[in-house]
Design a protein that fits this description.
With 488 residues, this protein is mainly alpha-helical. The chain has 18 helices and two strands. The chain has helices spanning 6-10, 14-43, 48-84, 88-115, 117-122, 128-143, 145-160, 164-187, 197-219, 238-291, 293-311, 315-342, 344-351, 357-372, 374-389, 393-413, 438-464, 467-476, and strands at residues 422-424, 427-429.
Length: 488
């Protein structure tokens, strides 16, 4: 039902092809987020501190994910461009060398993080009770980060070829493993002792390992024939490594810049709202992660479509893919935000029924504030796909610098008391305005809206100046200028 061949990607109705390509990715991301929500769901039945401990580790995990993005998304963009130009051998070389980049980068990062996990958590301002539990969870998760990075990179190669069902299959198997393992490891069953927060981490690790084995089996040709790694591609090519890094580093910088702000914001939340504030922020973060799944799926699909169309020297279709995708996401997110606003209390009770009265009240407030700007949050993803697909990944980096460092963080600082000083990763800020943790929630919403409007204006400007036509010339090797900017 959701099969999309190369001809459909580069010819025919854009909206239909984009939706068919995105549908399995949306489902895959829903499964992925469900996998993450498993921890919150079960630990919400342990204690508020257990939920807060996982929440405190999330920004650090996401910050480390910047290294994964360098290889995974950089590889996807380049594989899509080569696939559009029917250079399958080149696509396989990019895949292998992209996986090596993923392994090297994340391996170099994982070792010190595991060794100094408790010290890292304390930099966030966590109290002694939370620090130890959070460090245990973080160390277990990060230990297998390199394996997860390789798996993500290979999965993105299937996405680049339009085989989004393969990615969905891998994710479904992974989440089924976690659904079974998490409650057993958290609460104990039979000879397995109750491990609490550590059990939640082990369940996540187990599901990730199973997913890696699954996607590597597909890449070896077991069950899929759209993308396959062959022996001739199993060689280090430094020119390809440099190309993956050149495209991926700005995206990793984008991710790192945004996630570092999230780390600092969690510190602000901990000071201004205590455990109740952190728990509320955690619930909001988990739900918003689930909410952006359609946009993320559309972004991944659009990047593949844009890359393939540029490789096929079709810049006008690449531009239209961005525009159509953004319109679809904005419309869907207006409806999604309305639903979350109306049912914020029920969502909180479902995810974390044991929150205190203060924690529940803050969670409901944050969910409603987030809902107001979901349309902007979702639309930003597809606009960024337009820049990423043309290999203009530096734009994504600069856009997030402005969104998070110029808008979100300064507003969020107003949450802490005027007499307070807080520090995280060596950064100290004082004083605040004492507006309370609610100021952090509004900072998130304001930065979402401003980011989308600013990026949309810049996209319109660069598209008119031939961004897609120029990218098509580079991707297709057209040195005669056949992709005229006027055709864009």
């Amino acid at each position: 039902m959701f099969d999309v061949d190369r001809e459909a990607i580069t010819d025919g109705p854009v909206g239909r092809a984009l939706l068919l390509l995105a549908a399995p990715l949306v489902a895959q991301n829903l499964v992925y987020v469900a996998n993450a929500l498993v921890d919150t769901f079960w630990l919400g039945r342990v204690s508020e501190d257990a939920v807060a401990a996982v929440g405190l580790s999330l920004p650090i995990q996401s910050l480390l994910g910047a290294a994964v993005v360098v290889a995974a998304v950089g590889t996807q963009i380049l594989v899509a461009q080569r696939a559009g130009g029917e250079d399958d051998a080149g696509a396989r070389r990019v895949a292998v060398n992209g996986a090596l980049v993923a392994l090297a980068l994340t391996g170099a990062i994982a070792i010190p993080v595991v060794a100094y996990s408790e010290e890292l958590v304390r930099f966030l301002g966590a109290d002694p009770t939370l620090a130890g539990t959070t460090a245990t969870y973080l160390a277990i998760i990060v230990t297998v980060l390199p394996l997860g990075a390789v798996g993500d990179t290979v999965e993105n190669c299937f996405t680049a070829y339009g085989d989004t069902r393969a990615v969905l299959h891998v994710s479904v198997v992974s989440v089924l493993v976690n659904l079974a393992a998490a409650p057993a490891l958290i609460f104990g069953v039979g000879p397995v002792p109750a491990l609490g927060v550590a059990g939640a981490a082990l369940g996540t690790v187990l599901s990730g390992v199973v997913g890696l084995v699954h996607v590597l089996a597909y890449a070896a040709g077991l069950g899929r024939d759209t993308f396959r790694l062959t022996r001739d591609a199993l060689a280090v090519d430094l020119s390809v490594v440099r190309e993956v890094v050149a495209v991926g580093v700005p995206l990793g910088g984008q991710r790192g810049a945004s996630e570092l702000v999230r780390v600092l914001v969690v510190s602000l939340v901990a000071i201004a709202g205590g455990a109740a504030g952190v728990a509320a922020y955690t619930v909001g973060a988990r739900v918003s992660t689930l909410a952006i799944v359609p946009a993320l799926g559309m972004q991944q699909a659009a990047q593949s479509m844009i890359g393939q169309n540029l490789g096929a020297n079709a810049p006008r279709r690449a531009r239209r893919t961005t525009v159509v995708g953004t319109k679809l996401v904005v419309a869907a997110f207006l409806a999604l935000g309305a639903v979350q606003f109306l049912f914020a209390g029920a969502i909180t009770d479902l995810l974390a029924p044991d929150l205190t009265a203060v924690g529940r009240s803050l969670s409901v407030l944050y969910l409603r504030i987030l809902a107001v700007t979901y349309w902007a949050l979702g639309g930003t993803y597809t606009l960024l796909a337009g820049f990423n697909g043309t290999s203009r990944t530096r734009t994504s980096f600069v856009a997030d610098l402005i969104k998070y460092w110029v808008i979100r963080f300064p507003i969020a600082v107003a949450a802490v008391p005027a007499t307070a000083t807080f520090g995280a990763f060596g950064v100290a800020v004082a004083p605040g305005l004492g507006l309370g943790v609610e100021a952090v929630f509004w900072a998130v919403a304001a930065s979402n809206a401003a980011g989308f409007l600013g990026l949309g204006a810049y996209f319109a400007y660069t598209a008119r100046r031939g961004m897609f036509a120029n990218a098509a010339e580079r991707a297709s090797g057209d040195t005669d200028g056949n992709a005229d900017p006027a055709d864009d």
